[in-house]
Amino acid sequence: EILLNASPQDSFAVCQAVINSRDNITDLVVTKGSLRIEFKEEQVHYAVMIMLFPDNGNFSQLKVIAAEFGMRGRAELAKALAEEIASSL
User: Fold this and answer.
1) What DSSP assignment string belongs to 19-75?
2) For the purposes of burial, counting CB atoms within 10 Å of the CB of 51, is it exposed (0-12), middle (13-18) or buried (19 or more)?
3) Out of 49, 59, 69, 83, which residue is the most buried by the measure of CB atoms under 10 Å away?
4) How far is it, in rounded angstroms, from Cα 21 to Cα 67?
5) Residue 20 contacts residue 13 (beta carbons within 8 Å)
């Protein structure tokens, strides 16, 4: 999880742009109402979520989960994607 110095809408827009720029994306599901994006890249399933801060609309929190079929979570892949998104803001 990474704290972002951007509104939830801006953070979500950057998430979409970063994910859309990647190759080999399949099963892309964008849920704008809940600020969630799910997709597969090769054998890895990702869930990217923007969390709101109730009292402050100028910040948001980015949460990325990655799991590979037949294996436990892939924290290093989730961290890499989260850092890529954060650096794009």
Assistant:
1) HHTSSSEEEEEEEGGGTEEEEEETTEEEEEEEEE-TT-TT-EEEEEEEEETTS-B-H
2) middle
3) 49
4) 20
5) no
- Digitized pLDDT (tens) for each residue of the chain, 89 residues in all: 899 999 999 999 999 999 999 989 999 999 999 999 999 998 899 999 999 987 777 899 999 999 987 677 789 999 999 999 999 98
User: Cα 45 to chain center, whole Å?
Assistant: 11
- Write phi, then psi, for 21 (nearest 5 degrees): -85, -10
Residue 87 CA to residue 39 CA, distance in Å, equals: 20
Residue with the two structure tokens 């859309």: 20
